[in-house]
Amino acid sequence: MADEELEALRQQRLAELQAKHGDPSGDPSQQEAKQREAEIRNTILAQVLDQAARARLSNLALVKPDKAKAVENYLIQIARFGQLSGKVSEQGLIEILEKVSQQTEKKTTVKFNRRKVLDSDEDDDY
User: Fold this and answer.
1) Inter-residue contact 42 to 31 (CB < 8 Å)
2) What is the pLDDT of residues 98-117, one digit of tens each?
3) Residue ranges of region Disordered (predicted)?
């Protein structure tokens, strides 16, 4: 096989694998849609949050991206429904973070299952 044929086969196989596994990196229209969505989210958040709150949210996104995404979704939702009177300050963002933390808090319980062990010292051998 020539190098061109081998490269064509590799590209074809790569495209098949990406389509099979749902890898969006192969489809430029999906990438563009994700970019547009991210830009829209950023513009809405820039309008809703002041500078200190944006910095805090970006720091949170580095540490806990799922919690930051939940807060962003909440902020976008209340902004779309017009429930915000002005920009959210850092203190307001902290309150929102506390609300989200309480809602998503995982409660762990520990249950001890003590089994009786047959021990010859406890039994009376009469």
Assistant:
1) no
2) 988 888 777 888 888 887 76
3) 14-37
